[in-house]
Design a protein that fits this description.
Layout lengths: L1 H28 L20 H16 L5 H6 L2 H22 L3 H17 L6 E4 L3 E4 L2 H22 L5 H23 L6 H21 L8 H22 L12 H7 L1 H8 L6 H16 L12 H8 L3 H24 L4 H19 L22 H17 L11 E2 L5 E2 L2 H4 L3 H6 L2
Antiparallel strand pairs: 1-2, 3-4
Helix pairs in contact: 1-2, 1-8, 2-4, 2-8, 2-9, 4-5, 4-9, 5-6, 6-9, 6-12, 7-8, 7-9, 7-14, 8-9, 11-14, 14-15
Length: about 450
């Protein structure tokens, strides 16, 4: 576990430190598209955050290759090289798209080619467990076709959900954490070494997302763009496929009896193997709904619109941050609930806890205008919008007094630039429009 934590920390640090220079590079390169009708941000924001995330991926793999216990993953398996090859290709296409806006069909073809590159190097699904039948081996073309389909679907699911600040990175981080816990249990709990690559991939993916999130939380200073969303989608798909394709389900059969009985008894443990995409159930549901909605209207399935789940939350009245937190909540509930049920399927309290948390989530959805207030002793540690009304007014009055007295120099802000809440930020010069004229008449 210590080596996984070291790999995670190195990936977080490299991604975090690279994001600042990448932001400056994106601004200099002009990778700041104009505001589109479906966008929810009000100011042009640089993209290309995927460059920093790819740097974190390379750093994580490099560190793991030099660690004693993780070095065996690279010696006994070709999956890390397959992942790096596919990730490099999809990342390069994403960088070009962030700058030049490539056609959707070109990106789809690049996704399929990236998946094919990984398949050619051995990262593919070999078998699937089927309830009532047992382990069903797949032919080569069946496994390859299923692998490519899962990679393409996962990439587009993550890409579709990347519509709010910090949403895609946070949801993928939650999914990677759940997948890491399950793969780590398979690896060290059952001693199945073929689960080691999936465990490593999940740890690195968590580091990529955690290192990028501080720069991407609302209000975001940089977007990951397609170079980041397609990259983390591919890494997530590779982690799940590695666990599904390389771990023999028969090795998990702990109950006596035939293969069919063992499959029935261990069905909860097969859930992440049969349906690896359950860890991103929310993005997957959003993808399916988007395709149905656009096809019903006679549009292309790749035509962008404002009908995603996060857009609906904003229309209900939720704030930007609250909408993101609600999506986090449901993703974590589904991902960790699935993993917990696969471990202790006979325990009723897990089901009851999931039902109770689902009820809490529904209540949060029905209270879009409810603003939580921090305790009075903690009001100095939270933003003004979470303080009580009188304390918030006092803080605003103190800030205004300091501004007038000149106790603190005011940070210059260009006039007419929209702020986070849609208000117009006014700089020092805009507050005195006739300053030059007054100075000339003195």
């Amino acid at each position: 576990m210590r080596e996984y934590l070291l790999t995670l920390c190195v990936t977080v640090a490299v991604t975090y430190l690279l994001t600042g220079p990448v932001r400056k590079f994106a601004i200099a390169a002009g990778a700041m598209p104009e505001i589109r009708a479906r966008d929810v941000h009000r100011e042009p924001t640089p993209r290309l955050g995927g460059i920093a995330m790819f740097g974190g991926l390379c750093a994580g793999l490099l560190v793991a290759d030099h660690l004693r216990n993780l070095n065996g993953v690279f010696e006994l398996s070709n999956e890390p090289r397959a992942l790096l090859s596919g990730a490099a290709l999809i990342w390069l296409v994403g960088v070009l798209d962030d700058k030049f806006e490539l056609d959707a069909l070109i990106k789809l073809g690049a996704q399929m080619i990236s998946a094919g590159v990984m398949v050619m190097q051995g990262l593919t699904i070999l078998w699937i467990p089927v309830p009532g039948i047992g382990t069903v081996p797949l032919t080569q073309w069946q496994g390859n076709l299923l692998t490519v389909a899962l990679v393409v679907i996962t990439i587009n699911a993550v890409n579709f959900v990347d519509g709010l600040d910090g949403l895609a990175a946070g949801m993928v981080c939650i999914a990677a954490a759940a997948l890491f816990l399950y793969a780590y249990r398979i690896w060290f709990g059952y001693g199945i070494e073929s689960a080691a690559p999936a465990t490593l991939f999940a740890a690195i993916l968590m580091g990529m997302c955690l290192g990028f999130l501080p720069h991407n939380m609302h209000p975001a200073r940089i977007f990951m763009g397609d170079s980041g969303s397609m990259l983390i989608g591919l890494v997530l798909a590779a982690s799940a496929i590695s666990l599904t394709g390389q771990v023999d389900p028969d090795a998990l059969a702990l109950f006596a009896g035939g293969e069919r009985n063992a499959t029935h008894a261990m069905l909860p443990a097969y859930i992440p193997l049969i349906l690896p995409l359950t860890v991103i159930a929310i993005p997957m549901a959003d993808l399916v709904l988007a395709i149905v909605r656009r096809t019903w209207k006679g549009q292309s399935p790749f035509a962008a619109d404002r009908g995603h789940l996060h857009h609906r939350l904003l229309e209900l009245g939720h704030s930007h941050s609250r909408a993101v937190m609600i999506m986090y909540f449901w993703s974590g509930l589904i991902a960790f609930g699935t993993v917990a049920y696969s471990v202790h399927s006979a325990t009723m309290w897990i089901v009851l806890a999931i039902v109770a948390l689902s009820a809490v989530g529904l209540i949060l959805l029905l209270l879009p205008r409810f603003t939580p207030r921090a305790p009075r002793w903690a009001e100095g540690l939270v933003p003004p919008r979470y303080r009580h009304a009188e304390r918030a007014a006092e803080a605003a009055a103190e800030a205004a007094a300091q501004d007038v007295s000149g106790a603190e120099p005011e940070r210059p802000v260009a006039a007419g630039v929209s702020g986070v809440n849609g208000a117009t930020a006014v700089g020092p010069r805009s507050r005195f429009p006739d300053r030059r004229k007054a100075e000339s008449t003195r």
